[in-house]
């Protein structure tokens, strides 16, 4: 816009109704499909250049003030190509940064918390047994089960408790770890879930200096966990140590989580199990965020390259002018 002629810039000043700084291009100009995308940028740019000393200031800053006519024409041709590329990059960048599907860190964190605890809460808060387990009963066999509608042991914490808690019947030690200070026995009571979780989570590793979860990490851990799901009958699948019947924790049953399935296919049930679906959603949103971040970096780098190219074009024009003007002045003086 800075190197365009006065006639071009004047085109933006009035619309056909006489209003200043038209927002839509006149119908008697080039085909609208060519100009429509750019008009929203051209019109404000022309208006800005007309105000105060903006035009002079930007020419001085870009070192293109007083360019020779031929140098200005060459620079304008180069800058037109550069500006077209930069505009396309800018629009792509705008799409990346203003995407309606962009997930915030807070959204992903909430999904992970809901998957792990059954509701959004900080890891240091007490586990709410009523949120971690959604079955209506209070026995281990019923709470360590996921029905076809996805209700039951619907959180990661509930699943871990079902796989690791001792019972008053047969397990004298946790099947997941050994400690002299073992937690109290658990036979499925929701109000006893916090005591179990408090004892078990100590064996999950250090809680500090951990890396932020990535999409691939979540998906990998989810895949590894679900790969251990055993289809034991056409209507049942079990995660954990399954022996015969149910997951009551007795020696005749197992320390596990039972999934009600259909025709030997656990997928429909898993697709309704909250901890699975929420982790999948978190992984997907993180992947989208990672892709947007990569695209934003790529587009920003490309825009910087176009800016450098524009500065180089202006510098070349200024250098040409600096070289030619003294020759023209000398020739004029001797003519």
Mind explaining what this structure looks like?
This protein folds into 2 domains: 6-101 and 289-333, no CATH class; 105-287, no CATH class. It has helices at residues 6-10, 32-50, 54-61, 69-97, 105-117, 129-132, 140-143, 156-164, 193-200, 215-226, 267-270, 274-333; strands at 145-146, 230-233, 236-242, 254-260. By secondary structure, the protein is mostly helical. The two termini are 36 Å apart. β2 and β3 form a beta hairpin. The protein contains 12 helices and 4 strands. α5 packs antiparallel against α12 (274-333) and α8 crosses α9. It has a 4-stranded mixed beta sheet with strand order 1-4-3-2. Helices cover 52% and strands 6% of the residues. InterPro entries: Trypano_VSG_B_N_dom. It holds the Pfam family VSG_B. Residues 279-306 form a coiled coil. It is found in: Cell membrane.
Number of helices: 12
Termini Cα gap: 36 Å
Low confidence ranges: none
Multimeric organization: single chain
Strand content: 5-15%
Mean pLDDT reading: 80
What's the β-strand tally? Answer: 4
Main sheet: strands, sense, barrel:
4 strands, mixed
- Please state how the strands of the largest beta sheet are arranged side by side: 1-4-3-2
Name the overall outline: elongated
How does the helix and strand content classify structurally?
A: mainly alpha
Secondary-structure element series: HHHHHHHEHHHEEEHH
Radius of gyration: 34 Å
What percent of residues adopt helix (DSSP H or I)? 40-55%
Tally of domains: 2
